[in-house]
Amino acid sequence: MIRKLPFTIEPSLLAADLSRLSDEVESAVASGIDAMHLDIMDGHFVRNLGFGPQMVAAINRLTDLPLDVHLMIYNPYDYIERFVEAGADSITIHFEATEDVEETLKYIRSCNVRAGLAFNPDTSEGMIPKYLYLCDLILLMTVHPGFGGQGFITEVLDKIRFTREICDRLHIKKGGVVTEGGEGDPFVIQVDGGINLETARLCYAAGANNFVMGTYLFHAPNMAERVAELRDL
Ligand code: DX5
Ligand code: ZN
Q1: In this structure, is residue 1 part of a structural domain?
Q2: What confidence tens digit (pLDDT) does each residue in 19-41 have?
Q3: Rounded CA gap, 160 and 142, in Å?
Q4: What predicted TM-score, i.e. pTM, was given to this entire model?
Q5: 159: CA distance to ligand 2 center in Å?
């Protein structure tokens, strides 16, 4: 029997109505999501500004769900400590924005926080295998980072397949751990950007098991219905 790949859903707060922040978080939590995704942007690595440690700390006071912090900033190393203090449960840095990727991932983990590594749609997949052992999740951006509401980039599906194939072939499991017999939970491959029911299905079939969704969830007439529908991918 083929076991179905378990997966998780994270709404991206970037698409929420910030004038009703606590209501938005409350309805996301009530919808049965698995974690909150928080986008941090520095206006340099991406052409937009968004959120900081104070926002992470505020959300941390509103929910017990894990906070997944996506750093779209240069020199992430210098800011890790502040996001850890603010309550981040996982911190994802960008391959393209980080001087010493290995050192930064190790530093994140040394703070007892899960470490993620993100790749832009145009970044070569050849760089991915080296880091699978050093992180807890690989984020494959399915739009060019910086803004919500963009269209899904179909070409990234090949990169998802490539990453899942390597994990399967080399028995790389959750947390980048290698298990000889292949036991253990699957490695986390996250997708972010333009994800809705249809594109989530495509990504899931390609091997993704963590879905970040901004517009599709926060602009929905009924978020809980959408989350329930997604559970049947
Ligand atoms: C984009 C951000 C995403 C964004 C996704 O740079 O990393 O998390 O909020 O938004 P949607 O789901 O609307 O594409
Ligand atoms: Zn994001």
Answers
A1: no
A2: 999 999 999 999 999 999 999 99
A3: 10
A4: 0.98
A5: 18
